[in-house]
Amino acid sequence: MTLLDEDSRLLGRLMNEPIQPIAQAGISPSFEAIELFSLHLPHCSLSQLLDIFASISSVSEDYFSCSHARIREMAILIEHIPLSLRDRYTFCLCPINNNGTSFLSTAYILIVKKYSEGNAITIQFIKHLVMGEMRLADNLERLRILGDVYDILYAYLWLSYRFEDYFPNRDLVRELQVECGDLINKSIQLMILKESSKKSANTLIRKSPYIEKGKEKRNNIILKKDGKMGGKQQQFAAKDFENNFRFVVEKLKK
Q1: For residues 30, 32, 34 and 38, what is the CA-based torsion angle, rounded to 10 degrees?
Q2: Low pLDDT (below 70) residues in the chain
Q3: Where, if anywhere, are coiled coils annotated (predicted)?
Q4: Which residues on neighbouring strands pair with residue 26, listed in sequence order?
Q5: Do the strands 63-65 and 25-27 form a parallel or antiparallel pair, or are they unpaired?
Q6: DSSP bridge pairs for 186
Q7: How far apart are the C-alpha atoms of 9 and 116, rounded to whole Å?
Q8: C-alpha–C-alpha distance, residues 184 and 188, integer Å
């Protein structure tokens, strides 16, 4: 089951296709390999070690070297923070998309810096970081920031399984992440509503042409909080929602 019917049909078609044999598998250096490599280049940063390792390493034809661009970006982001090589490598593996926004970069740096100082990253600290951005978004830029907040909370959860003593409030942060996800959903609905109509937040009026018994007919679709629609009107409204939802998603990708 997918959010949009069109995606459900696509998923069903892909699942019915025969599974193609895997020609190659991706491979990345383990921490142990990077650590051994660093013994010969003790003055190199992690980003430099990754670059040098990638330039001189080779793999058999059954494998290909995975890109280390994201890990390298994270390594550069926290390069100035004093950490052991193992801890630095772990923080760089954190599945967070460093998209260059100031909020995301700053928040992650503050988290890593607090860890490097030997302090626990508590729920109070996390709330101090994110609560100023935890509100409904009415434009794409605000929605992106909400997405960054969600990513920071996800990063906390991921790190809490690697550094349990320093990330002790996993359950409380998970609750905060659920709240953030709810804000994102409501924000998308609000933006779809605004895109569909500029008249009212409670009423959506759309004119949709459709063919009925061979005759072209134009009908006004009115959506109210407690209103109901006929079958064809529901189809047009659902399709309209899909189109607007895709519009918002495509805007976020840019």
Answers
A1: 180
A2: 1, 3, 100, 197-254
A3: none
A4: 64
A5: parallel
A6: none
A7: 49
A8: 6
